[in-house]
Amino acid sequence: MRTRRIVIAAASAAAAVLLLAGCVDNSTPTGGSSSSGSSSQVSKDAAAAKLLPAAVAKSGSLVIGMDNTYPPNEYKDDNGNPVGWDVDLAKAIAAKLGLKPQFAIAKFDNILPSITGGKDDIGVSSFTDTTEREQQVDFVNYYTAGILWASAKGKTVDPDNACGLKVAVQSTTFEDTDEVPAKSKACTDAGKPAIQVFRFDKQDDATNAVILGQVDAMSADSPVTAYAIKQTGGKLQAAGKTFDVAPYGFPVAKNTGMDKAVQAAVQSLIDDGTYGKILDKWGVSDGAVKTAEINAASKG
């Protein structure tokens, strides 16, 4: 997820009552199971494992902080188990390091404190690498994502000319706290109607609001929007192109050596083709990278 903040979403409850169930199918991709890229299919990389902090290597587990409410990146299957392409990558990283993945499900805002406090070894929750966050943790970069809007099929929406429109977002995402409010302010500064923001606790509900015609469009991270378009069977279409592209990163504690171990594991997955297969399975290969970097935001 892009930068999140605590927001009082007064509009979300009112908007949520407009929704009907069953509009979005968030089952795992056809032709693949949620375990693709898991430890049963990935070989240990001894060189990467050797870089692990001694305490993590001795524990035998990789403790993974995750907020599982953001399909297709990370979410829950019908049995409550973590699934998504970030989940598949996390399992594959653990396998490369010779560790057993252990998911610690938490609210997004609690993950970085759990890493800096030593409770979690790594965060896997669509974190956008920012220079502000790099003051707390180090990031191993593994993907590039931007913002992509979607509208109902056949409805033309221009994200750069959305004054007066109703736009759905997931609460506390960057789209909610920064992107759409900035667009709305530009509207009012120009004497035009503000954008009406409809906030939802879950991305599925924001997507359903577009399908049901309760809003004009939705704004989300590019892989999330692309997946929603695919999963809704042609009921949605991209509104404009991806913009505001930034790197995703796996946050780890500073000055522990964990960054080098995870970087080596991710690079090994890229080099042996596992990384590409996972992204292809989930239909999110557009943001693939060839090199796992560390703290790309401060370099860019």
TrEMBL record:
It holds the Pfam family SBP_bac_3. InterPro entries: Solute-binding_3/MltF_N. The keyword Signal applies. Residues 1-21 form the signal peptide. SUPFAM superfamilies: Periplasmic binding protein-like II. Keywords: Signal. Residues 61-286 form the Solute-binding protein family 3/N-terminal domain. It comes from the Bacteria. The keyword Ligase does not apply. This is ABC transporter substrate-binding protein. It comes from Microbacterium rhizosphaerae.
